[in-house]
TrEMBL record:
Its cofactor is a divalent metal cation. This is dTTP/UTP pyrophosphatase. Its EC number is 3.6.1.9. Nucleoside triphosphate pyrophosphatase that hydrolyzes dTTP and UTP. May have a dual role in cell division arrest and in preventing the incorporation of modified nucleotides into cellular nucleic acids. Its main location: cytoplasm. The active site is at 74 (proton acceptor). One of its GO terms (cellular component) is cytoplasm. Gene3D superfamilies: 3.90.950.10. The record marks 17, 75, 157 as: Important for substrate specificity.
Length: 198
């Protein structure tokens, strides 16, 4: 089928995980444009509304033609009302991980798809239990530097998998792009996730 019949897909993300997760569906975006927005939470902003607001803001700011499909997402780690963003350094990463140690927390990923002036959005929330970390586990994980650039200072798909015995919800949503919901949103926006024939 003539590929011009399909709208272009713009991945509005600089996250390598999101590009990898799309590849898992056999989807290669026509362009990758990392959004540049202010991700600071508003005073007293709760995790889930914050996540949805940021995902939408990313989708609105990414450059695209009217017929292009823009895909953006935001992943927010929430400990109670507290938003755990990306740790600035190993010290803050240790603080985050000690706060998460031995407790359950939530990971919300909001996916926003825009086509022209229309936006479709879905928030996917999962629960994660982190084991109580020993000093050896904490220091070994920090030494991998895998916490860099990741909300909550951990990546479930990497070495931190050894620290997470239990989740409830969407594994791909925790990583950063809930694939079932993303596929549905792309279809709704007119981007053919399943291309019959070739
Ligand atoms: C909780 C968790 C987060 N992450 C990552 C996914 C995201 O890259 C990052 C969350 O930060 P985000 O702000 O959602 O995304 P980003 O800044 O990396 O990229 P962009 O805004 O350009 O789309 O944390 C994991 O890789 N694994 C995990 O288990």
């Amino acid at each position: 089928m003539n590929s011009d019949a399909f709208p272009r897909l713009i991945l509005g993300s600089g996250s390598p995980r999101r590009l990898e997760l799309l590849a898992q569906l056999g989807i290669v975006p026509d362009a990758v444009r990392p959004p540049d927005i202010d991700e600071d939470p508003l005073r007293g902003e709760l995790p889930r509304p914050y996540c949805a607001r940021i995902a939408r803001a990313k989708a609105e700011v990414v450059e695209a033609c009217d017929d292009d499909v823009v895909l953006c997402a935001d992943t927010t780690v929430a400990l109670g009302r507290r938003i755990l963003g990306k740790a600035a350094d190993a010290g803050e990463a240790a603080e985050f991980l000690l706060a998460l140690s031995g407790r359950r927390h939530r990971v919300v990923t909001s996916v926003a798809v825009r086509r022209g002036g229309r936006i479709w959005q879905k928030d996917v929330e999962s629960a994660v239990k982190m084991k109580r970390l020993s000093d050896i586990e904490l220091n070994a994980y920090l030494a991998t530097n895998d916490w860099m650039g990741k909300a909550g200072a951990y990546g479930i798909q990497g070495p931190a998998g050894a620290l997470i015995p239990w989740i409830s919800g969407s594994f791909t949503g925790i990583v950063g792009l809930p694939l079932a919901e993303t596929a549905a949103l792309l279809q709704t926006a007119g981007y053919p996730v399943y291309r019959s024939g070739s």
